From TrEMBL:
CDD domains: E_set_Cellulase_N. The active site is at H516, D558, E567. Residues 139-580 form the Glycoside hydrolase family domain. GO terms for biological process: cellulose catabolic process. Its EC number is 3.2.1.4. Residues 46-127 form the Cellulase Ig-like domain. This is Endoglucanase. InterPro entries: 6-hairpin_glycosidase_sf (IPR008928), 6hp_glycosidase-like_sf (IPR012341), Cellulase_Ig-like (IPR004197), Glyco_hydro_9 (IPR001701), Glyco_hydro_9_Asp/Glu_AS (IPR033126), Glyco_hydro_9_His_AS (IPR018221), Ig-like_fold (IPR013783), Ig_E-set (IPR014756). PROSITE patterns: GH9_2, GH9_3. Belongs to the glycosyl hydrolase 9 (cellulase E) family. SUPFAM superfamilies: E set domains, Six-hairpin glycosidases.
Length: 586
């Protein structure tokens, strides 16, 4: 039976199952080093605070604040510069939100207010809200900073002024002499041999480089560019390549793609990861002198590689003067052919390795993704047939389940290559997923599409990937409700959430500060690298830190020890960049 003959319940079920599996397998964790929290949020009664998008709201966006469950029935919006009341509104009745438990609160909706300026919300007997801005350019700086964060996480490069902007560091992990681990050895490259595997991004709070997580991360950023090229044409990130005539977003992604290209063996297979055997300490890259290895091979690594390199071969073609895009496409097809001949080879963690696994044992979604990207790049009919043969039910994408990504590519770039019936089938089932998310948003007293099942490792990436799904639906239909639901996700990560934190470093009145990120923790600079997205609340408590709450949406600590809620990762920042770009490029 074709998967799209299933009813809508199957979409929900897949989404739930993938979320659950991510909570157990999302192994972009670092090490189990823990300590007592230094800045516990537990001393603050967050239920007594007014929660707002701490950065602000665009003029025509939905504007909602969460307020304590007070007896008052109205609220005032005050101009922060003049202290004048500029708007009055009624509070909602008392509500609760299942992921946050039984705590009651009210909503203050001021969506009809469309003046620009800086404002705060006032309610009798309650501390005033943080000052926030209403303006159409409220997200511009954040977008650029969230993309610039990848520069700060480059491996194999010294970060220097004028690009560092106060966050200079020495080169670490040149990776010019990487050892082939026994798990990745072949006759032509035996264990102990050396290879050159430079560049790339540090994956998360550690110093590993992982093909699987680079897959969804690079794709999401490539999609941001390919859907909004004019937005990026003259956008200057102040990186070393900024004057080369290529959009800076593509310069930054290419730093990672160049590394990915080095991870392919001569037979088309792809090494799963490049890490040391154990976790690095709390130290800067230059201080980590552990031997580094290419470790393992897997079907998932080959297919992530094939999908991304095929997509990249199209995106970079207008800027290619040396033929590298054709090399990428050949490499992508070689990886596909190897995966077809090794279609059930999951990554197996060797006994002497502790670094993140990114393990996966179900590959039909990756096959469908790679097939779609190769079809778009080559127009070979066998890839189109393979896509429909492997096509899976759609859910919010994650590194482990990517079935909705080929749908995005085909709906955006492949209409002329599909029959009307094929296009309609993909669109219909994609919109079915978007409508489920929209329904969750409309039913949520927090104005967000998340349910309790979404509070897994990296829950903030879940809500932003939900926003990405919703924004594709908006592009397909021009129905504003989808866009409103997407902006609800931004408001959530920027402070309108039960923890009262802005989950983005350096942005908002109360941003996270003690992220699990070795560079930020070890560089001697008080502030963390800006615009990094923390993983977010979830009650798995895998790190053993001293959490007070056990509710999914309130189990969070802004502390180094909390790598299960406060680590950062390249696949978490990517949907933040995408969502901002899609909104700003309108």
């Amino acid at each position: 039976m074709n998967c799209y003959q299933r009813n809508i319940l199957s979409v929900l079920l897949v989404h739930f199952c993938i979320a659950c599996s991510s909570s157990k397998s999302d192994t972009n964790v670092t090490d189990p080093q823990t300590k007592s929290p230094t800045d516990p949020q537990t001393s603050i009664q967050t239920t007594e605070l007014i929660k707002v998008n701490q950065l602000g709201y665009r003029i025509a966006d939905k504007k909602v604040a969460i307020v304590p469950n007070v007896e008052a029935t109205s609220f005032e919006l005050i101009n922060a510069d003049t202290n004048e009341v500029v708007y009055q509104g009624n509070l909602s009745t008392s509500k609760s939100w299942l992921p946050a438990g039984s705590t009651l609160f009210k909503r203050a909706d001021f969506s009809s207010f469309q003046q620009t300026g800086k404002f705060k919300i006032s309610i009798g007997g309650v501390k005033e809200s943080y000052v926030f801005e209403v303006a159409d350019n409220v997200y511009d700086e954040l977008h650029d900073a969230a993309l610039k964060a990848y520069y700060y996480n480059r491996a194999g490069q010294e970060i220097t002024e004028p690009y560092a902007q106060g966050f200079s560091r020495q080169l670490g992990h040149a990776d010019t002499q990487v050892t082939v681990h026994s798990s990745a050895a072949t006759q032509s490259r035996p264990a102990g041999s050396k290879l050159h595997s430079t560049k790339g991004w540090y994956d998360a709070g550690d110093y590993g480089k992982y093909i699987v997580n680079s897959g969804i991360s690079s794709y999401t950023l490539l999609l941001a560019y390919q859907q909004h090229p004019e937005f990026y044409t003259n956008r200057d990130l102040n990186i070393p390549e900024s004057a080369d005539g290529i959009p800076d977003i593509l310069n930054e992604i290419k730093w990672n793609l160049d590394w990915m290209a080095t991870m392919q063996d001569q037979d088309g297979s792809v090494y799963h990861k490049l890490t040391s055997l154990g976790w690095p300490g709390k130290e800067m890259p230059v201080q980590d002198q552990r031997e580094r290895f290419v470790i393992g091979k897997s079907t998932s690594a080959a297919l992530n590689f094939a999908a991304v390199m095929a997509f990249a071969s199209q995106v970079y073609q207008p800027f290619d003067t040396t033929g590298y895009t054709q090399q990428w496409l050949v490499a992508a097809e070689n990886a596909w052919n190897w995966a077809k001949n090794n279609d059930n080879l999951p990554y197996q963690q060797p006994a002497d390795v502790q670094s993140g696994e990114y393990g996966d044992s179900y590959f039909n979604d990756e096959f469908s993704w790679a097939a779609a990207q190769l079809y778009l790049a080559t127009e070979k009919p066998e890839y189109k047939a393979a896509y429909f043969a492997y096509q899976q039910s759609f859910s919010t994408p994650s590194w482990q389940y990517v079935a909705s990504l080929p749908a995005v590519s085909l709906l955006t770039f492949g209409k002329s290559l599909l029959t009307a019936a094929e296009y309609q089938q993909i669109q219909q089932n994609y919109l079915a997923l978007a409508n489920i998310l929209l329904q969750h948003y409309q039913q949520s007293s927090y104005s967000v599409a998340m349910t309790s099942a979404d509070f897994v490792w990296g829950s903030n990436a879940v809500v932003l990937n939900q926003a990405m799904i919703l924004l594709q639906a908006f592009k397909l239909t021009e129905q504003l409700n989808y866009k409103h639901a997407a902006t609800g996700a931004l408001s959530y990560v920027l402070g309108k959430n039960p923890t009262d934190y802005s989950f983005v470093t350096g942005y908002g009145a109360n941003p996270v500060k003690h992220i699990h990120h070795r560079i930020s923790e070890s560089d001697g600079i008080e502030s963390p690298i800006p615009a990094l997205l923390a993983g977010g609340a979830q009650n798995g408590k895998q790190d053993g830190c001293n959490y007070v709450s056990s509710q999914p949406a309130t189990t969070f600590l802004d502390d180094w020890c909390s790598y299960s809620t406060n680590e950062v990762a390249i696949n978490w920042n990517a949907p933040l960049v995408y969502v901002l770009s899609a909104l700003l490029a309108e």
